[in-house]
Amino acid sequence: MSARFAKLAFVACCIAFTFPLTASAQFGGGGGGGGNNNGGGFGNNNQFFNVVGGVKIDTSGVLSTTSETLDPNTRQLIKQSVSGLDSDLETSSKLRMVSLRGLEAAITKSKDEGTPLSKEALYMAGLQRVEFVIVSPENDDIILAGPGEGITVDDEGRIVGSESGTPVIHLEDFLVAMRSTENARTGAGISVSIDPTPEGIQKVQSLFNQLKRTRTPFNPNMQPNVEQAMGDQVIRLTGIPADSRFSQVMVAADYKMKRLSMGLERSPISGFPSFMELVQNAKVRSMTAAPRFWMECNYQPIAKGDDNSVWQIRGQGVKTLTEESKFDVDGKRKQAGTQNKFAQKWADSMTERFEELAEAEPAFRELRNLMDLSVVAAIIRKENLGKRVDLGMPAILGLSNAAVTPSYPVAKAVSAQCSFVRLTKSWLVSASGGVQFDPWGVAGETESADLSQYTQVASNRSDNWWWNAK
Questions:
Q1: Phi/psi of residue 374, each to 5°?
Q2: DSSP strand pairing (141-148 vs 132-136)
Q3: How is residue 301 annotated by DSSP?
């Protein structure tokens, strides 16, 4: 075929939207019975949960972009809602301890008294990341520990650390992780993907075949035609409630990865070109398969104390992987069995520079928080820690109605958006991806270590359900 009628290498068109990562659990109450001030729990202040980050979700679950941003008055209201915290919480600590027995009691008390959960409980006492799981037999307790600091609100409405500006861990995410740990071990696991429908693929293939028959050269001005043929992308979630904040963070992180790989969004860090740019700059002649990118857990073996009472979660938490696939005549994806060196280069670069990306884009840091929490839940379940200390945790595990997590709009689909780069003998269109967790695999890889100092630190506790290690 002549260069004038160059082929078009079809790669599943990706989505383009920005997901709300606002915040607080207490802003989210909705159809799922998040509770109210009379019933205790998370409250029902969802008047704050509006358009944040550039997306709206209609009643059918279809996402659309919007230019609306978080207005200063709303941000101020959110900021006021996290004021008045315990003064000790404002003191940053490299090792903040959270008692699960104490947290369970705080949740139950909120329900029994019909009062909202405290801000300290909603945001897990300002934990930035969970690094240790500690069993305290003398107190019949399980303790989570990691860096912690005070809480504030950033310009986008996210609840973040007052010193670092990084997202804090949300109680509702921890509850979802604890209640979904069996799903992570069996069945389809915990995952999200945003994919074209087989019907959409067939329509795009028909469009390209028509161009070929009529010897009509392809050009980027045909983008609306391609996107219309593709139709809506379907958002698929497994293993977690689709209306949870947990699912929204997963979708948001997947979206960000897609946008960066496709070159639809400028990288927030320097020297990190998109996959599309890598291919174009290398003057690739053509491509016959579709690179797919997705993110998974990325940890070192768990350090396990010699006395079987401390587990240390190590590693950056997230890695990006890639594979190639093709679409058959029915629009179904099949593995191509080949490796795209440019896709691998982009995936490796994102893994290597994840810390930088997470610093610049909170969606990735929030995703790591979710992975950390899922690993924590797997450790607790795998090691039967609740039985060891006679801690049932009915509220945390969802065995009672003391902590019904907030319900958010369910994202089901989004209109396709494509990006194009000109190769030597073809055009390349977009990329696809996903996120999937294997926390049980992480929890199952351990190595012995002397962690006795953390057992001693945990025993030096306060009367509160959280405290800073001395």
A1: -65, -35
A2: antiparallel
A3: P
